[in-house]
Write a structure and sequence with these properties.
With 222 residues, the protein is mainly alpha-helical. It has helices spanning 3-10, 17-23, 35-56, 62-72, 75-84, 87-90, 95-99, 106-124, 126-136, 138-142, 152-162, 204-219, and strands spanning 169-176, 183-190, 195-201. The chain has two domains: 3-142, Ribonuclease iii, N-terminal Endonuclease Domain, Chain A; 152-219, Double Stranded RNA Binding Domain (2-Layer Sandwich), CATH 3.30.160.20. The longest helix has 22 residues, at 35-56.
Length: 222
């Protein structure tokens, strides 16, 4: 796939194709690399996603919108988008990065997506950038669950509060292993529902999250 085909795929025809080339140039390849465009694109992308979430979820407060935006604008999501649109195949990398698999490195792929958004913004303005964001993140936006990104303890707590049920109690019931490799076992109890679950983890927090996830699964079957 060439740069022109990629531009068509993301939905923008560049007046200045050099901007796209620069957006896809890693610093290992040339001094004319994409880091400044990445800086710009990060802000534009956050603004565009904020607008989309604001429109799609009119009932959500600021904190929830911020959490959803963070769930979308992160390395994992952006690198997945990059792979879907074949960014790795058209990235310009130095020989060392090529040999070490830089075209598949999540951080490099995610940075390139941000740089492309920045390039589109410079080339066509905010509306053009918003259109590209809607194209490349459209599926993620369409399938966005307002509960996405919540940890199990928060999900369980909100489920119980909505039903006016007392919050669960957590307690460490066992620890195993040497001090530097301990395993914790935590109990989660919801007396009103007769639920008691045991979670395990390498620290207390992860064990609590495991127990909460199991308790939520029980609670939503009630």
């Amino acid at each position: 796939m060439d740069l022109e085909a990629f531009a068509r795929q993301v939905g923008h025809r560049f007046h200045d194709p050099a901007l796209l080339r620069r957006a896809l140039t890693h610093r290992s390849h040339s001094s004319a690399h994409n880091e400044r465009l990445e800086f710009l694109g990060d802000s534009v992308l956050n603004c565009a996603i904020a607008l989309e979430l604001y429109r799609r979820f009119p009932q959500l407060p600021e904190g929830e919108l911020s959490r959803l935006r963070a769930h979308l604008v992160n390395q994992d999501t952006l690198s997945t988008v990059a792979r879907r649109f074949g960014v790795g195949a058209i990235l310009l990398l130095g020989e060392g990065e090529l040999r070490s698999g830089g075209c598949e490195r999540p951080s490099i792929l995610a940075d390139a997506v941000e740089a492309v958004v920045g390039a589109v913004f410079l080339d066509g303005g905010y509306d053009a950038a918003l259109g590209v964001v809607q194209t490349v993140l459209g599926d993620a936006l369409a399938n966005m669950d307002p509960a996405a990104g919540k940890d199990p303890k928060t999900t369980l707590q909100e489920h119980l509060q909505a039903r006016r049920i007392s919050l669960p109690r957590y307690a460490v019931v066992a620890t195993r292993g040497a001090a530097h490799r301990q395993e914790f076992e935590v109990e989660c109890v919801i007396p009103e529902l007769g639920i008691r679950t045991l979670g395990e983890g390498s620290n207390r927090r992860s064990a609590e999250q495991h127990a909460a996830r199991l308790a939520y699964e029980h609670a939503t079957r009630e």
